[in-house]
């Protein structure tokens, strides 16, 4: 999933991933949830016995908390310098700007995916957690951060698949 220019965004992506993961783990801790997928999907399984109305309330609160976190980082991901000004530009300029924005967003998505899944960064995440003793080290690394730019990841994969078929 690496594309040209992704390395420019890696350091920034790492910082954002650390903050995102910290906030996601806080949600998980607050609601005694051990699996990331439960927070993302809203299909929460709690160890405690709760009345159905109380359980429904907890599910709503988890969904609300994660929706806000997702929205915050989705908006952060989508910040780019190509959305500012230029309404008076001619068609050629607009096409060039669109192409540059597309490359920019693909490189950014690639970097966010890279710091989540690349073995070097996955290991760094484990070491960072061990060093900070922030949470249960038996829990796996969180993986949802890498998918905040999913629409661009799909374009990368589609483009690479087309090039492979042409060869």
From TrEMBL:
InterPro entries: RDRP (IPR007855), RDRP_C_head (IPR058752). Residues 1-165 form the RDRP C-terminal head domain. It holds the Pfam family RdRP_head. This is RDRP C-terminal head domain-containing protein.
